[in-house]
From TrEMBL:
Domain Glycoside hydrolase family 2 immunoglobulin-like beta-sandwich: 168-270
Transmembrane segments: none
Domain DUF4982: 643-701
Protein name, UniProt field: Beta-galactosidase
Domain Glycoside hydrolase family 2 catalytic positions: 280-431
Keyword Hydrolase: yes
Keyword terms: Glycosidase, Hydrolase
Source species: Streptomyces lomondensis
All copies of domain Glycoside hydrolase family, residue ranges: 715-814
Top-level lineage group: Bacteria
Length: 820
């Protein structure tokens, strides 16, 4: 079918009561270009705040019901053809009407779906499509709302290749050749039996035909047929994270009159193997998954899914040392899958955050029993040809996993996945403590009695939950968990475990055939986890929470300090906190100190890394949740703190590190694995240079230098690319930074920056990494955070985009991005 973008020409507004508009419009529509997040700009009319229905889970944004409309012309020549409208994602509970008639719906906000439009269309005339979407107390994180992913119009003949109708597998690979099997589904909506030919070509990255074949296919009316073509590629270039070689399968459907339809898909030739001795093997080589859990929002863009935003995020995660992404806790966008294929990033794609037990008042559990199969089908159809996808997760922290009926549901989902795609593995991200939550009070009380303690059951729970990380890990190792989760793990290929490293070694003995994946872990304990991954062949990797900071679940990773008024840490921050504040990379794409620490633990960085704890908190008792890193910043610019005590963190895999302040040595401290790859130096702040030197066996192995910013503050603008394309989904990212004349970042000189965008582009989003702020992403003024802000530009045509930025006390700066 012919596929064209359907993103332009839409209008949007909050849903209004139609009876209220009998006397005239009460809320005007606004012009928008998709993808569009209806929630991110809602605070113009319904402000963010403590009392919003979404609360801290939704970053204090207001939910609501939103409606979109579009008028589009349908040519007369489309009469007698099939016309479909495809939505890659509408959040949530979407309903679609065409020319006033109901055309379709989709409750789940993360599934792509299509509506058959031709039966409702007026040919040779203008037509109207309306889409409604709802977001209200239905998630534990910021979801955004509305038509937040791409839309497409598909047109084709009555006999055609079905949408998602090409499925490529590589069942047999060796050094000499690879077997490539292309299954093509042909549909026939005519009244006659039709016979045609399916011509298939396999091409390499530069377009050279490597193999071709023709298969005859007869299609009965209303009965799709699958034509399989088995081809052989000599000396195949294999896809792997280190060498992501891609191929294209081009398929043409023909009859005696000529070509009827054509489709193409990109795929990779690679093999997967799994066993407890070798772990996960890609093309025969064992791969340990250095994983990042990520949510779907794109920071300053909200939930709007642009291809360039997804590609940039994948590339930055790869550059930071990750080789795998777990999409949490919903299916990944098509754009991100494409990026993972190109960049070389392995993917664990996840279906659901809930099954039949609700986690929020109005979440998908209300629709799960009726819709789960269709949503699994949609995920598999989307993922099937992507070599980056190695595993499907059927759920995340499903409470039912500890019950017999929950195990039945798990088997249903797992077998459905296998029936649709037997080439990947199935996991489920189980939180073992949550799986026995109903029996947790009795378990705690029994443990306290065994110790001779007599305090109340409630007190026992409070004590246990004082360190939720230790609690989850300790309970995970209990016999009760072993018994209650045995069947739920037994239906899987890989036992996904959240915060349960206490089971890694013991399950190697208890369940010799069990393969374990740390599907979600604390960033503060990566050294412990990675040692276990390295030591245990049956443990295939670790996924940290999280690789990239995100909107919502506000403040779970924020630094906290004990005071008489706040004697213990709290999981949720008050308004105006905006982000979870727990990612290795912040919402603008800047790496935080924990990212460099992780890179060292992974064995990917030999240079030491310096970070300085904020001197204003020196001496206070740190008490963050287990997702919270220290408040350290990689900066030696702390005006106002001259002569005040400060703690310097040095990360390294060497034997020892030396710290020098303005050339004066503070001595050496042991570091490396036995010291958790970290040494802390207490000193006093004095402007100048801070230098860390690492040594192994007395020989220097690397150094890291920080300089204090001095002199006037300069505003600088740096675009990520000088030239972008006008294609759907492309963007330009411009970093605005406050520096001194030598380029050192002024992390303590934050101020408001104003941007003006002219030419062939618009400002799509403007923000900083500030975890707590009342500023919006849809304005032209934004205060920097630690010296940085980020402007995101969307092209509107071929030409040039001009950005001019100003800030108090700084000379204006300009940058030009070409669009061609």
């Amino acid at each position: 079918m012919i596929r064209v973008s359907f993103n332009d020409g839409w209008q949007f507004r909050p849903k209004v009561n139609p009876f209220a508009e009998l006397s005239g419009p009460t809320a005007p529509f606004q012009d928008v270009t998709l993808p569009h997040d209806a929630m991110i700009g809602q605070d113009r009319v319904a402000p963010r705040g403590e009392a919003t229905s979404e609360g801290g889970a939704g970053a204090y944004f207001p939910g609501g019901v939103f409606e979109y409309r579009k008028t589009f012309f349908v040519p007369e020549e489309y009469r007698g053809k099939r016309v479909l409208i495809e939505f890659e994602g509408v959040y949530r509970d979407a309903t679609v009407h065409i020319n006033g008639d109901y055309a379709g719906q989709r409750p789940y906000g993360y599934s792509h779906f299509r509506v058959d439009a031709d039966r409702f269309l007026r040919f040779g005339e203008d037509n109207e499509i309306r889409v409604e979407a709802r977001a209200h107390e239905d998630s534990r994180w910021y979801t955004g709302a509305g038509i937040y992913r791409d839309t497409w119009m598909l047109t084709g003949e009555l006999v055609r290749i079905a949408p998602d109708g090409l499925r490529v597998t590589t069942p047999d690979i060796d050094a000499e050749r690879a077997v490539v099997e292309v299954a093509t589904t042909v549909e026939n909506d005519s009244m006659a039996i039709r016979t045609g030919e399916v011509v298939t070509e396999i091409r390499d990255a530069v377009g050279t035909v490597l193999a071709s074949g023709t298969t005859q296919v007869t299609v009965m009316p209303g009965e799709p047929a699958t034509a399989r073509t088995r081809l052989y590629v000599s000396d195949p270039a294999l896809w792997s994270p280190g060498s992501p070689a891609l191929h294209t399968a081009e398929v043409t459907l023909k009859d005696e009159a000529g070509d009827i339809d054509a489709e193409s898909v990109t795929f990779g030739i690679r093999s997967l193997r799994l066993d407890p001795r070798h772990g996960l093997r890609v093309n025969g080589e064992t791969v340990k998954l250095r994983g990042a859990c990520v949510h779907h929002d794109n920071g300053p863009l909200g939930a709007a899914t642009f291809a360039r935003a997804e590609e940039r995020r994948v590339q930055l995660l790869k550059d930071a040392g990750f080789n795998a992404i777990r999409m949490s806790h919903h299916p990944m966008s098509k754009a991100m899958l494409d990026a993972c294929d190109r960049v070389g990033m392995l993917v664990v794609d996840e279906a659901f955050d809930m099954w039949t037990s609700a986690k929020s008042g109005f979440d998908y559990s209300l629709h799960f029993p009726e819709w789960w199969e269709r949503d699994i089908e949609a995920m598999i159809a989307k993922d099937f040809n992507h070599p980056s996808v190695i595993m499907y997760s059927i759920g995340n922290e499903i409470p039912e996993a500890g019950t017999a009926v929950g195990a039945v549901w798990g088997r249903r989902l797992a077998e459905k996945v296998r029936a649709l795609d037997g080439t990947r593995y199935v996991t489920n991200a189980v939180n073992n403590m949550l799986a026995i939550m109903s029996e947790l009070p009795a378990l705690v009380q029994k443990a306290r009695q065994a110790k001779g303690e007599t305090s109340s059951e409630g007190a026992g729970i409070n004590t246990l939950m004082a360190d939720v990380g230790e609690a989850m890990n300790a309970i995970s190792a209990s016999q009760l968990v072993t018994e209650r989760t045995a069947e739920s793990y037994g239906v899987l290929d890989v036992a996904g475990m959240n915060y349960s490293d206490s089971r890694y070694a013991m399950d190697g003995d208890l369940f010799p055939g069990r393969i374990i994946l740390g599907t979600e872990t604390f960033p503060t304990r990566i050294d412990t986890y990675w040692r276990l991954v390295a030591q245990n062949d049956h443990v295939i990797g670790d996924f940290t929470w999280t690789g990239w900071d995100y909107l919502g679940e506000v403040g779970i990773g924020r630094p906290q300090y004990l005071t008489p008024e706040h004697p213990k840490p709290t999981p949720t921050a008050d308004y105006p906190h905006l982000t979870a504040d727990c990612g290795d990379i912040d919402i603008t794409g800047h790496r935080r100190p924990v990212s460099y620490y992780r890179e060292i633990v992974f064995g990917l960085r030999t240079q030491p890394y310096l970070a300085v704890q904020r001197p204003q908190h020196h001496g206070k008792a740190f008490a963050g949740m287990p997702w919270a890193w220290t408040d350290a910043v990689s900066s030696w610019t702390w005006p106002g703190y001259d002569g005040r005590p400060v703690t310097v963190e040095v990360y390294s895999d060497a034997d020892e590190v030396e710290l020098l302040v303005n050339g004066r040595s503070l001595g050496r401290l042991p570091v490396g694995e036995d010291h958790r790859f970290r040494a802390d130096f207490d000193t006093v702040y004095e402007p100048g240079e801070l230098l860390a030197i690492a040594y192994r066996g007395g020989v220097e192995t690397g150094r890291h230098l920080l300089r204090s910013a001095t002199g006037p503050v300069l505003l600088r603008a740096q675009a990520d690319r000088a030239i972008i394309t006008p294609h759907v989904g492309d963007l330009a990212y411009v970093t605005l930074a406050l520096t001194d004349a030598g380029g050192t970042l002024h992390t303590a000189a934050d101020r408001e920056v104003m941007v003006e965008v002219t030419g062939d582009g618009v400002l799509q989003g403007f923000g900083s990494a500030a975890p707590s702020t009342e500023e919006r992403f849809d304005t032209t003024v934004r205060r920097t955070y630690q010296g940085r802000a980020l402007a995101v530009l969307r092209p509107t045509g071929i030409g040039k985009i001009h950005l001019r930025a100003t800030a108090p006390g700084c000379e204006p700066v300009e940058t030009v991005i070409g669009v061609e």
